[in-house]
Amino acid sequence: MAESEIQKLTKEPSFLLTKWYLDCVDESGDAAIVYVANLRWNKLSIRYGSLLTVLDGRAHSSSSLRKCAFPRLEGDTTTLTLPHLGIMGTWRALRAPVKRTVFDGEDGSADWHCHQPMAQVDLLLQGKTRMTGLGYAECLTLSVLPWKLPLEELHWGRFLSEQDALVWIDWRGPQPWRTLIHNSEEHEIQSLTESEILFAPSGTSLELDRGLVLRSGQLGQTVFAGVSHLAKLLPHNMLSVEECKWRSRGVLQTGNSSASGWAIHEIVKWK
Fold first, then answer.
1. What pTM was estimated for this model as a whole?
2. Residue 213: CB atoms within 10 Å
3. Is residue 236 classed as helix, strand or coil in its secondary structure?
4. What digits encode the pLDDT tens for the residues 75-131?
5. Apex 115 CA angle, 110 and 62, nearest 5
6. Cβ(198)–Cβ(182) under 8 Å?
7. Could you give the 3-state DSSP secondary structure of residue 151?
8. What is the rounded distance in angstroms from the CA atom of residue 159 to the CA atom of residue 165?
9. Spatial CB neighbours of 45, under 8 Å, sequence gap ≥ 6
């Protein structure tokens, strides 16, 4: 083994982040968004869970560093039980899964597995509030340090109606990568902003009203606020990354027909 390779193995940190994202939005717009993540970084090992809910138009968030179990996959059903966050529920798949390698470089890779682009969800919150509706579930596996990604801006989102499952990712930077998948078929993105997406075939569009901001600010004040001892280990440029996440009413226009539904989407900007 060359000396440079030995130096790389001894100097580069051993890093692996596995992050689950699951959500549900009912017909009225009430929503639940769940993150469950496991981080291994050299000798550090952290399991983290967070829950963001929207009930009657009011957003509330909570987090836990207690041992949070990953979702359990059995056939077409995903089951999640997080007693410390007061949530338990099932996601039953209504569309086929999708998997992509978003980034693959010398320092590691980013693999995206959308287990359920569209699901029928049944949740119980705090043992008393039941929520049912359409939802979504994905898992991101990252083996490269996030601040080493060739990334300047990320647009991500999902839109669901009774007939449609739409998910998009747009990585912007030195090595751009984007995809949009509508009902299991990949389509070329023609234009993408925080409020409108145009994609092939020509004339197909999704309009988003950005009706409710779910979370906004620097990651050091939002995502990492509940894991302060981890935040101390991260470089400033990671903590200062800006994010904005919305729950939007969306209208999907395809040819002569249109469908309305709910979207969860975000923009993340590296400075």
1. 0.91
2. 11
3. helix
4. 999 999 999 999 999 999 999 999 999 999 988 999 999 999 999 999 999 999 999
5. 80
6. no
7. coil
8. 6
9. 38, 39
